[in-house]
Amino acid sequence: MEFEEERSYTFHYILRAVIMLGLTFYIVHLVKTDSLLYYIAPRMMIYVKIAALLLFVVAVYQGFLAVKSRFGENQEDCGCDHVPSRSIGVNMFIYSLFVFPLLLGFFLPDTVMGSDVASIKGMNLSATGMVKTAAAAALKSDNAKKNVSSTVNPFSVTAGDSALISPSTPAADQGTMASTGSSTKSLGTPLSAEDIKLQEMFKPDEYTEDYSKLALKLYKKKAPITIKEEGFMELLTAVDLYMDNFVGKKMIVSGFIYREDDMAPNQFVVSRLAMQCCSADSSPYGVVVESNKSKDFPKDTWVTITGTIGKTVYNKNTIMKLDAVKIEKIKASKTPYVYPYFDDFSNLVK
Amino acid sequence: MRSFGSQWGINLFFIALMSFMVVIFLHPSVFSDLSMPDLTLLRSFKTMFISIILEAFPFILFGVLVSSFLQIFVSEKWIRKLVPSNPLLGILFACVLGILFPVCECGLIPVVRRLIAKGMPLYVGVVFILVGPIVNPIVYAATYIAFRTRPEMVYARMGLALFVGLVIGLVLFTFVRKNQLKTSQSTLYSSVSTEDGKIEHQHKRSSSKITQMLEHAGSEFFEMGKYLMFGSIITAAIQAFVPRSDLVDIGQGAITSHVFMMGFAYILSLCSTSDAFVASSFVNTFSAGSLLTFMVFGPMLDLKGSLMLLSVFKTRFVLTLAFLIVITVSLGSFLIERFYL
């Protein structure tokens, strides 16, 4: 019996050591092949690497214990017996839970997630949801407080237009604009009529100051608005928030092609998956594109679209769309995801 | 005979596993060259599953190492001294512990199990498990970024978490007296405190405390990790196979949206550092109050976490705790929605 006990300990220690080493090697393999990016956001990677190191240390010690318990003294004196079950079946099941990720990891290729995941997670076509909601909610806050159900109704607060300046106003009367503008904003330097007009067009409310500054910068630039990988969601949000001002401007955006079942044949979405920490929390964000050549581009094709910003109604919501001028096939992005931008937004537009 | 047979089984299993590892280690490309059938869904499952466990590894390792450290180096006496004996102060103490230990529940549960076994009052430990994953600087920053334009969501989240912790802590203090740990204290904590408070651990052969710590960490990694793995498999399956839009259609309306968001948070089992980001993608379709429910309920009780809780506490206690969390979070969230958001 004594012998069996020893063997049982040895077996557990060896198996644990092997599994932990396997997990360590898997993480090292992911790092070496640059495929950790498929699973974890860059800012989390350092922790995963440290974890691999710790796993390795613990694994080596488990291996050492295996040798010790095989050839060393009796272990029975150790009061902290963590071997939970003597049943082979239960043990096999528990250890196979740990082997399972290794099998998956090494047998299935790493894949860039695309349309299939986007359709499961649900495409976000209006990046500005929260901003508009906030603005609208602020205007309606009194009503909302009196009547809870009105804020619960999903579409009662999405009519963001109430917070936006209608596109016809800037052109209407420059004189009144100038007077209201200069009285509210006294920045020391005299403002040109143009600046005042712009400030009026991109008037922030208390929630959207960062975005309005970004949008103003984008608007002033003569070149087409490029939605880069860095700050993808933030740039898209800024344009979307002041959508009416940007109608008619050119935009360049890259991503994979995604389609909903109820979209018109000439419509598709150019989308990117945005990740916070890991793939499980990623959400797809995208822009609707309209093009006659839509059918030449199957789903999950990576493209760069140059298009003119317009508006369309989809699922009862007014959203931004691009009328494609040029569609260019590209190679899939090296980084499969886009990440939230933590720095000052003004660095996004040079 | 049985043992002879099982020895063989073990050996074969082990040999197979070992050779598998060797092959992988020498030729990682062997497997990617295999022509796999196009299993897109399985692939998304893989991506979800691997990403969930990779994200959890640092936290769970940190958790088991801290737990092992406590086991070996910290005396019961010291912990009893550290935790205020006044229940209110004790609960407040637990609430702010999260600021010092900014870890998700995967990391906290092993630590708290050890702390309770070492004499931390149950209500203090539980409040730490509930509030710690929310009221800490990392989650504060993440929520702030996700709701950049609505800072009141951040305050509401922190406030509600503290409120729930306070209420549940007081309830537990008043009504629960018995030991609720699953494993008896003697097996969990085998050190003997001698008169002068010195620790005398019973590993006779172990040479140094550091190696004892590593031994504990190894065992505990598997003990806690099995629940994590199992929970992650289910979570990844739901994430990969169940369309969100189907779910979202169920959960509209003043009260159902709160109920739905609790269930949603439960099955998604996101880390508290990233759930605010997911919540913010639902702003168009759900009320601020129900998103608050999502962000407070999720870190306190989710599929992955409740499996881990079941490994630590008695089943009855976990069920009671779950019930308390559901009631307090929904009540609190309702009140905040009505008067603050």
TrEMBL record, chain A:
According to the lineage, what is the superkingdom?
A: Bacteria
Name this protein carries in UniProt: Uncharacterized protein
* Coiled-coil region list: none
Q: Which NCBIfam families match?
A: TIGR03943 family putative permease subunit
Q: Which organism is it from?
A: Paenibacillus baekrokdamisoli
InterPro entries according to UniProt: DUF1980, DUF1980_C, DUF1980_N, UPF0703_membrane_permease
Pfam families xref list: DUF1980, DUF1980_C
UniProtKB/TrEMBL annotation, chain B:
Q: Which GO terms describe its cellular component?
A: plasma membrane
Q: Per UniProt, which keywords does this protein have?
A: Cell membrane, Membrane, Transmembrane, Transmembrane helix
Q: How does it sit in the membrane?
A: Multi-pass membrane protein
The reply to whether Cell membrane figures as a keyword in the UniProt entry is: yes
Entry similarity comment: Belongs to the UPF0718 family.
PANTHER family reported in the protein's UniProt record: UPF0718 PROTEIN YCGR (PTHR34184)
What protein does this entry describe?
UPF0718 protein YcgR
Q: Please give the organism.
A: Paenibacillus baekrokdamisoli
The gene coding this protein: ycgR_2
